[in-house]
Amino acid sequence: MFGLGKTGTATARALLDAGAIVYAWDDSEENAKSLQCELPNCQVMAPEGWPWAELEALVLSPGVPLTHPEPHLVVELARKHERKIIGDIELLYRAMPDAEYIAITGTNGKSTTTSLIGHILKTAGGSVEVGGNLGRAVLNFEAADTYVLELSSYQLDLLETTHFQIAMILNFSPDHLDRHGNMMGYIEAKRNIFERQILNDAAIVGVDEPYSEALCREMLAEQRQRVIPISTSQVLEKGVFVREGVLHNRLGKEEITADIGSIKSLQGEHNWQNAAAAYAACFLHGVAHEDIMGGMHTFPGLAHRMQWLGEIDGVQYVNDSKATNADATEKALKTYDHIHWIIGGVAKDGGIETLERHFRKVKHAYLIGEAAESFAKTLGDMVPYTQCVTLENAFAAAAANAKAGEAVVLSPACASFDQFRNFEHRGDVFVNLFHAKRGNDVA
């Protein structure tokens, strides 16, 4: 196996526990030495010295290039010796072939949708493990009846026999094109999620952008499996869609509707797509409508991703620290009105100029970090602002100015490394400030 990060280490341990002889290496000698100390029975050596004729397969870390910009040396060696190239998801499936698998991919929304499905199934009493491209490495999972897996295009490249009873693609936008060569290569990699599905399986496809809508039409014509469209922009004859905060289930003989617009952890159209996808997956998995909605209403959301913390004196507080660029911040500005916007850090290319059409929704901006001066020039006379330097100063000023019906939103549109270890650290500081103001113990 090659690649010894969190996933690779879990994979090596699982294979050794199963009685396999494991040869392992990493481009980082530090990782290789660490694994040798942790797992002394593992044969840690460069792949040029592996007994390739005796190996069953190369288990590859998803981040190692298979093709673009060029294959890694270990990939070339595996192909030269005609060894299979697989990943940890494939090993999980081979170990637990009788479980049910729900798989989620797409450019945006994967983590929220995966977590929401897992939460709904657990609150409905299911035996469930959740992970893949988020959370724990899958080979650290406990035995379960159902595995809910977020999958990147890299992970989908490394499947051979894995069969997902329910699989979904949420959306497409250009991403990882250095790995896949072009947009068509990226789409084909994502489409691997539907390979080996049969007539009784379900393929859930978002249809709110051209690439995925075309894919949905093509799959409906092929009739290889049940194809379920989901949307937040169209009224569908069949499928699940959300319009003005109302979810419509048209999968059965009679339409079922539910108001999801009031669910604080699922605010915004992007989250309504996630909710439609999760609803479809859980409904097709056999969960009753009432249990699905019960799970949605108790879903806490993902930390740092438009994380609704609560209200103080009628003012909402939202931690969107993961919004490290303007595109991500746009979702928050579209979702809330009367915003007290905490913004700044290490600016990305393009700054916040693309957000100008949303400035009318901002009551006041509170500028922090390295980008404060440049952002002040962009805001100009369009948005009142205060130079606050630190997040603590910005929070205090925003909390003092905000009135009932308004929202204090940390959505920085910047990286965090000028003042914080990472975006999680920045978000945790904001959350602690909120709890301190509300009078709770610091989280």
Features:
443 residues, UDP-N-acetylmuramoyl-L-alanine:D-glutamate ligase, 15 helices, six-stranded mixed sheet, 21 strands, alpha/beta, Rossmann fold, Protein-Tyrosine Phosphatase, Chain A, nine-stranded mixed sheet, 3 domains
Protein architecture, described:
The protein is α/β, with parallel strands linked by helices and 443 residues long. The chain has three domains: 6-86, Rossmann fold (3-Layer(aba) Sandwich), CATH 3.40.50; 96-297, UDP-N-acetylmuramoyl-L-alanine:D-glutamate ligase, CATH 3.40.1190; 307-438, Protein-Tyrosine Phosphatase, Chain A (Alpha-Beta Complex), CATH 3.90.190.20. It has helices spanning 6-17, 29-38, 73-80, 88-95, 110-123, 153-156, 177-180, 183-191, 210-222, 269-284, 289-297, 326-335, 372-379, 391-401, 423-438, and strands at 23-24, 43-44, 57-59, 84-86, 100-105, 128-132, 146-150, 166-169, 202-206, 226-231, 239-243, 246-250, 256-259, 307-312, 315-319, 339-344, 346-347, 362-368, 385-389, 407-410, 414-415. A nine-stranded mixed sheet has the order 6-7-5-8-9-10-11-12-13, with helices on both faces. A six-stranded mixed sheet has the order 14-15-20-16-18-19, sandwiched between helices. Strands 1-2 form a two-stranded parallel sheet. A hairpin with a 2-residue loop joins strand 14 and strand 15 (315-319). Helix 5 packs across helix 10, helix 5 (110-123) packs across helix 11 (289-297) and helix 10 (269-284) packs antiparallel against helix 11. The two termini are 40 Å apart.
